[in-house]
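Section 3.1: Structural characterization of target chains.
Under the original work plan, the team committed to producing a structural model for every single-chain target entering the pipeline before any wet-lab resources were allocated. The record below documents one such target. The sequence was received from the expression subgroup and is listed exactly as submitted; it comprises 283 residues.
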Amino acid sequence: MPRYLLVVITLLCSLFPLVTQQSLAKDFPQRIVSLGPINTENIYLLGAEDRLVGNTNYCVRPEAAKSKEKIGSVMQISIEKILSLRPDLILATGLTSPTQLKKLKELGLRVVQFQQPKSFAEICIQFRRIGTLLGLEERAKEVIRKAEKKVAAVQAATAALPRSKVFLQIGSRPLFGAAPDSFTHDFIALSNGINIIGEQKHGIVSYEKVLLKNPDVIIIAMMGSESGIAQEEKKRWLGFPMLTAVQNQQVYVVSPDIACSPSPATFAETLAIMAGLIHPELK
């Protein structure tokens, strides 16, 4: 075989995988609209932010997400704005209006809905599914492996520590805590803490019950922190000096952005923060 033909064949073979990868990439969504913070953060974590053409006003993590085109709030979106962005994939959440969700589908748009995850395991399952949708499953697997390693490290660090009773407050009207079938419960359980409402089937609880349970630690992670509601709740708890959490000076406010809408990576980071609040001896 002539030498020049061998060189040409070798060059073509070396380019084939690249051409194939580029062709495959085009087979996956290239214009994505996210209808919730978890979906938005997951897209960035997958390194697919260049495909994200729109998200909600509540999508503030990472910082760059704030500059994307806004299509409304988590529960009230602008269908006209979404149509103008010409998406080939819309990632909805459990809070997306059913009526608007139906309308988007009737308009022929591709919509994939993710319900609120109930555990760290479900967070990882959803993340991998998004990775598969975008043709980035290997990247998703790697992110999950790193998150699981960090979670395991927290579990190992807290396993032998005394178990504190914890109330993780998610809402105030009505008072709402970390229900046992929610990923917020995992923040407590994986930190070797005791969720004081862990026996309930829902998160709604009375102030009287919390006082009766007398938690060692109170952590407030609720929307509205920017308007001062969370600080008002902290002040309210501090008004009960008989609470062990108050006596221990363990009433905390944390950002709802990290605690209420986690990706696998954010969950692992937040878990480490929560573990530090529940077990000050770790510091």
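The mean pLDDT is 89.
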